[in-house]
Every structure is written in C-alpha cells, then in structure tokens.
Amino acid sequence: MGEEEEFANLPLPDQFQHKNWKARKGGYETATKEFRTAQPTDPIVREFILESGLWKAAVSDSNVAAQQEALGAYNAFLEASGTEGARKTRSNTVGGIVEKGLTGRPAAKTAAMESLLLLIELDKPDPIIEEILPYLSHKMPKLITAALSALTNIYHAYGCKTVEPKPVVKLLPKVFAHADKNVRAEAQNLTVELYRWLREAMKPLFWGELKEVQQKDLDKLFEPVKAEPQPKQERLLRSQQAAAEAAAATGDTGEGGEEGEEGEGEEDAGIDLEPEFEAVDVLAKVPKDFSDRLASSKWKDRKEALDELYAAVNVPAIQEGQFDDLIRGCAKSMKDANIAVVTVAANCVECIAKGLRKAFSRYK
Questions:
Q1: Residue 280 backbone phi and psi in degrees, to 5
Q2: Burial of residue 293, with CB atoms counted within 10 A of its CB: 0-12 exposed, 13-18 middle, 19 or more buried
Q3: Are residues 2 and 127 located together in one domain of the fold?
Q4: In terms of residue numbers, what domain contains 322?
Q5: What is the reported pTM?
Q6: Domain TOG: where (predicted)?
C-alpha cells in the first residue's frame, strides 16, 4: 500500500514512464479521471500535448493490464484536447494502437478501435488510413488481420464519402492472395463493407486480379447486400457535426433534413472511383506540321496526320494545356468528305475528352 501511495505522489509524466507497471497503470487511471473533466486549455492537457511522446510508450505498454488503462487514458485525453491533441499525437500512437491494442484483450481492442475512430473524428481520416495501410504488407498475419478489421470498422462508421476508398480497394488483391486463411476471411469482411457503399462501381479497380473462386465467393456475399438500402454515415467528423449544428441553427434542415441526408447517401457522384493515372504531356508529342498536313488536299495526308494525333492522345490521362487548335482542327475534319478522316477525327476528340476529363468542359 505504501508503494502505491509513493507512486501516486509522483508527477503524472513520471508515472507514465516508471519501470514498475503498477506505477504506470496507476498513472493512466489518474490521468483518465483528470482528462474526463479537463478543458483544452487546462495545464494537464497542455502538458500532454507538448509531451506527446509520452503516449507512444503508453499505448504500447508491455503490461496488458496497464496498456488497457493507457488506451482509456488516451481516449479521455483526445476528448479533452480535441483536434490539436489528435494532430500532435497521432504519428506517435497509431502504430502502437494497431500492433498492441488491436491484437490485445477484448477490452483493449475496443478501446484501441475507439482511439482510431476518435483520431479520425477529431480531424480527418487520411493521416490515419496512411498509417494503417502499411500493415497490410506486414510479415505477421495477425497484424494484417487487425489492420483489415480496423479498416472495416472505419468504413462502417464513416462511409466511403468521408474516407477515400481507392487506396484500400487497390490493395485488396494483395490480401486476397495471402496464404493465411484469417487474413483472407478478414479481407472478405472489408470487401463486403466497401460493397455496401460502392456496389458494382468498385469492381473495375480490383476484380480482375482475384481468382475466379474468390469472385464467386464474393458475389454470393454481395447478393444480400444488393437488397439493402444505401447505408448512412453513422459517425460524423467534428467538422461535419459543426456544419450540421450551424445548418440547424439557421433552419436549413427542416422537415426533410433526414431525407436530404439519405438522398446524399444514394448518390454515387460524391465518391470518386476513377483509376489514377499519371497525366501525359501529349502536346509535346503532336507533330509540328500537324496543322499543315491536316489542311492538305489529299485525304490520305489528312488521315495520316490524324492517325499520328490519335497515337499521341490515346492515353488514360492528359496534362492540361492549350488544345484549342487541335480541337478546332478535329471539329473541321469531322465534316470531311472522306469517312475515314471523319472517323479518326472523332476518335481523337473522344480521347482528348477522356484524358482531360473535367478540364475538357471549356472546349464544349
């Protein structure tokens, strides 16, 4: 008893770093109580923001009983410190939360998952997802499984409009090819969760890289999801909460407030699933004498010029630039007396439109 009292008299940072696990556990418990009633400007909150490295060791505490209390203290700290606390500490804590928290006892897993969800809620999801993704390539299957499970919970809570899905979807073939059956099973769970939000639109990003038997298994799991209504975001970022409160204060959310929310979830336009390609500077590849050859009196010269243009612009993504002359030339060629010239000119315009995407609108 005397030893515990001695530990309790130490400053909290010293308790956090003590060699004795009982001292650390006591420090975490005391910190939890203090953070629960603290304000962002209180000295204890400021101290643990400034000494954010304390959390790195705490969430990875080697003693399972102490670690569970550490995760509880960290969550209480995040609630008290808000966005600043999340930003200052996440680079020190996410790794330990995944490696030690998500693989620990049930209570620790629950607290660790809440830590990740809180870190996202208080700021934005991208930094947390970026910290988790490397674990999908880890040597230890249990860490891959833990990371996949965390991602499933994150998408379930925040949805694919708030949390960018493409980086995760593109990694699915890798985890489906893993030798460990638990990894593959958890990959299935994540894929079904993503399918709830994205439906068939997600398939082009990864489907062709799966085995046929995996495709069939997933299609069976997708079938009941198709009958479900479009899911709604269950947990809002603090920025989204503030926007909703502001809208409510100004009366923007009336009787149809909930319906508007549902309508937003039904639209796929807000989720960008276009594959990412490196934009090509096609203007540099267009023959310098293109305009002269396009004005030739011989249809074969005109077609050859357009064929070379097509070879240059037939790429997935095009760098923005001055395409006015090319578009005008192609538009004129689409009225050519020779059908072969017309066809190639139309194909060139289509390629430029697809490559430039939204930037092409100025030429319409």
A1: -105, 140
A2: middle
A3: yes
A4: 283-360
A5: 0.75
A6: 1-231
